[in-house]
Amino acid sequence: MESTYEHTHIPLTTVSSGEGHEVSIDIYCYCIQFVNICLIGNPTSKSKTWFLVDAGMPHSADNIIQLAEDRFGTMTKPQGIILTHGHFDHVGALTELLEHWDVPVYAHEQEIPYLTGKANYPEGDSTVNGGLMSELSPLFPNHGINLGNHVKALQADGSIPGLPEWQWMHTPGHSPGHISLFREKDRSLLAGDAFVTVKQESLYRVLLQTQEISGPPKYFTTDWEGAASSVKKLNDLRPSLAVTGHGTPMRGEELTSQLAYLADHFDEVARPEEGRFVH
């Protein structure tokens, strides 16, 4: 592993690569370079059943496996892997993880072409305003991967096999089949990249992990009308906790006020002025 992961309880603070937050007893957020994965499951339960949400950067499989073993025990594997979407930084370790665990992968049906080798994502858009990450984005991998029979389409009713308290919802914009996960009982939200808590286009802010709610990473977002609608949908849930694909978890009044502002002023603060997919 990059470093020993740290159990950090509220109040939530900046997290660096190789560190994590136990944001609740059964939600653990772990940062790999500049992207987050989540482990859903209570490590104190007898069953120790758990799910992995997203699969991080390439070459991070050993880190993820070690993290899971530290948290749930050495003879453990997830019941499944849930993908918010299939961009390279969210599926980077997936092939190696499936060789080790051999478990189902759940994704939205509109994301499956990118997970079965039938489609590639558009190249990163360097023409969007924002910072060095945007300028470098054409160099980021945009190819699909082929998971074969491992990948399963999520059920249309919003349920997730093995996670009865959670529901998924379609939050497109950043990608066609992007989803977010929500648990009503404590209003916990795993938002993926529908919105993030760091200005992902700016390498400086990414390195510092400066916390601020921002729209989806501009350089990979292809449907800005969909992205705006998705943010409004998530704001309407009034989440008390949000774990996003990039940046540190956020909760309470800070989350409520910043997410509402983003929803109400999306075109001003999130939609780029220029870009291949803006108009």
From TrEMBL:
Function of the protein: Counteracts the endogenous Pycsar antiviral defense system. Phosphodiesterase that enables metal-dependent hydrolysis of host cyclic nucleotide Pycsar defense signals such as cCMP and cUMP.
Catalysed reactions, semicolon-separated: 3',5'-cyclic UMP + H2O = UMP + H(+); 3',5'-cyclic CMP + H2O = CMP + H(+)
Gene3D superfamilies listed in its UniProt record: Ribonuclease Z/Hydroxyacylglutathione hydrolase-like
Listed name of the protein: MBL fold metallo-hydrolase
Residue ranges of every copy of the Metallo-beta-lactamase domain listed in the record: 34-246
Organism: Paenibacillus violae
